[in-house]
Design goal:
By secondary structure, this protein is α+β, with helices and mostly antiparallel strands. Among the domains are: about 465-525, no CATH class; about 530-594, GidA associated domain, C-terminal subdomain (DNA polymerase, domain 1), CATH 1.10.150.570. It has 17 helices and 21 strands. The strands form four sheets. Strands 12, 13, 14, 15, 16, 17, 18, 19 and 20 form a nine-stranded antiparallel sheet that branches. A five-stranded parallel sheet has the order 7-3-2-11-21, with helices on one face. Strands 1-10-9-8 form a four-stranded mixed sheet. Helix 1 links the parallel strand 2 (about 10-15) and strand 3. Helix 2 runs parallel beside helix 9 (about 380-400).
Length: about 600
């Protein structure tokens, strides 16, 4: 075994969207960081759809950006189509979505990592996380190389014991033609004793656009006027781009018949897949099975890049055999003559129970081990990126003996996401929606900078040159909200007067709703600040309902607010806990004073 002489503060395992954000944030905070991944050429690969954002997901991307993450900037650098979703509804649910050139996205992100100080990249596969009585102490790779560290972040995506399904054909893989990580999966199960279960997800076939009859589709042009995903992108840099176009079509009765005739040949219904898949992103055969009254389902044709004829067909995810997939394509008007370049498939993989995590995303039973992305039971690039950013910050803080950084539910969708995971757990792949956020009118995509950029600047994740322009923008927004006009010209950097004016208009229009939400959020903040003291066992309090005690013992909440959000724990239980926490604190104080 070769033992590397260097000792790292943080080692990130996996180079997907979670791993990239984790590595960048840890390195920016001064932690000596190593990113280990099986293949450096697939860093930040868009394994599924070639887009960033969507309903609630777009808000997460802007939150990552406002905190100093890279996803928003990389998205603008690789963009080929912009579309704001839900514009017919209120501003709380307006959600940005951007089609990207998947290769430009991938290599732009790779370059972000390559130029980042304190960050090393290495192509290798981790097979073991080593621990001692203090927690994580190193990792061992497939090449029998040992790296010393006191903190590791697992961002393994769908690679842990991954299995690919196309009809009845099963092959090992975390992604098609990429080998799974089986030894690491065994290490997590048998040596670290993590609570491991299985989920499945899938992806549609890709087609060659050469045979498409565009006249039979409804075009969806890019939005005009232009907007950007990142707060730090100058919109004028996008004006030279020749934006692409997406198209909308529908399945037919013939599509429906083909699927019904071949249900038992599907991996999903033929018996090979036994794990739960994402309810909100079902395969097309799942749609037909569960919604038999619907005879036509929308399909969205999305280009995969500027310099390729491949299209991704959103809505056509399937694990049917390849011959059935060819028939399905031919059943859609306008697609009869096009060919499949890559078949759709399902993938099963291991994930770890997120209830075993602290809100910092550190594992409760393995000090120094952090988990982010699909290993926590989530689905989506955006959810992964948000978790990766927070895990990277907290892994760095862990090695620097600093307090964890945790966002509340009223501060960010990222806060909602992580709180849901660690408090409620998952019984299906978790996907973010605006409906999951009770304070969504406060968590709009247009105010993510005002909500979170102060944190990004304070942490040191955002370049110092943005400090003064942002403070000027804050001041401008405050003045406009109370009806004042700015008295002098301000240096606003990437922000603008027009953006501030739009923000002020929304604030004034919905002022009553904001006040009610703010009061509710303040109440949440009060009980979220009541920490459950070390040594106090909430489940042992007499008078609690038996179910409540069981749930408290399982989740081990860190604050009274988190305890209140555990399903099955009642308001009466919380009142009782509050009394006993205060009594416990007084007893502890009396003991120290004696």
């Amino acid at each position: 075994m070769f033992v590397c002489n260097d000792t790292y503060d943080v080692i990130v395992i996996g180079g997907g969207h979670a791993g990239c954000e984790a590595a960048l944030s840890a390195a920016k905070l001064g932690a000596r960081t190593l990113l280990l991944t099986q293949n450096l050429d697939t860093i930040a690969q868009m394994s599924c759809n070639p887009s960033i954002g969507g309903i609630a997901k777009g808000q997460i991307v802007r939150e990552i950006d406002a905190l100093g993450g890279a996803m928003g900037r990389v998205t603008d650098a690789s963009s080929l189509h912009y579309h704001m979703l839900n514009t017919g509804k209120g501003p709380a649910v307006h959600s940005p979505r951007v089609q990207c050139d998947k290769k430009i996205y991938q290599f732009t992100f790779k370059h972000f990592l390559e130029v980042q100080p304190n960050l090393d990249l290495m192509q290798d596969e981790v097979v073991k996380i080593d621990t001692d009585d203090k927690g994580v102490c190193g990792v061992l790779t497939l090449r029998n190389t040992y790296y010393k560290t006191r903190s590791a972040i697992l961002t393994t995506g769908t690679f842990l014991a991954g299995t690919i399904h196309i009809g009845t054909v099963m092959t090992p893989g975390g992604r098609y033609n990429d080998m799974p990580s089986n030894q690491l999966s065994k290490n997590l199960r048998e040596e670290l004793k993590l609570n491991i279960a299985r989920f499945k997800t899938g992806t549609p076939m890709r087609i060659n656009a050469r045979g498409l009859d565009y006249a039979q589709f409804r075009p969806q042009p890019s939005d005009h006027p232009l907007w950007t995903m990142s707060h730090f992108t100058d919109v004028s840099t996008l004006e030279h781009k020749n934006f692409g176009q997406c198209y909308i079509t529908h399945t037919t009765l013939e599509t429906d018949k083909i699927l019904r005739d071949n249900f038992m040949r599907s991996a999903l219904y033929g018996g090979n897949i036994h794990s739960q898949g994402p309810r909100y992103c079902p395969s097309v055969e799942d749609k037909i099975k569960k919604f038999p009254e619907v005879t036509s389902h929308p399909l969205f044709l999305e280009p995969e890049g500027f310099y390729t004829e491949e299209y991704y067909i959103q809505g056509f995810s399937t694990s049917m055999p390849e011959d059935v997939q060819r028939a399905l394509i031919a059943s859609v008007p306008g697609m009869e003559k096009c060919s499949i370049t890559r078949p759709g498939y399902a993938v099963e993989y291991d994930f770890s129970d997120p209830k075993d995590l602290l809100p910092s995303l550190q594992h409760k039973h393995v000090p120094g081990l952090f988990l982010a992305g699909q290993i926590n039971g989530t689905t989506g690039y955006e959810e992964a990126g948000g978790q990766g950013l927070i895990a990277g910050i907290n892994a760095a803080h862990y090695t620097q003996h600093k307090e964890p950084f945790v966002l509340r539910r009223d501060e960010a969708y990222i806060g909602v996401l992580i709180d849901d995971l660690v408090t409620k757990g998952v019984n299906e792949p978790y996907r973010m929606f605006t409906s999951r956020a009770e304070y969504r009118i406060l968590l709009r995509n247009d105010n993510t900078d005002l909500r979170l950029t102060p944190y990004g600047l304070q942490l040191g994740l955002i370049e110092p040159q943005y400090q003064k322009p942002f403070e000027n923008y804050q001041h401008l927004c405050e003045e406009l909200c109370v009806g004042k006009m700015p008295t002098s010209d301000l240096e606003l950097g990437p922000w603008s007067v027009e953006k501030a004016q739009r923000y002020a208009q929304v604030q004034q229009k919905y002022a009553g709703y904001f006040e009610r939400n703010k009061k509710d959020a303040e109440k949440l903040a009060e009980i979220d600040h009541i920490k459950i003291p070390e040594g106090f066992d909430p489940a042992s309090v007499r008078g609690l309902l038996f179910e409540s005690a069981q749930k408290l013992r399982s989740v081990q909440p860190q604050t009274l607010g988190q305890a209140s959000r555990i399903p099955g724990v009642t308001p009466a239980d919380i009142q009782l806990l509050a009394v006993h926490i205060e009594r416990f604190r007084r007893l502890q104080h009396a003991k120290k004073s004696a």
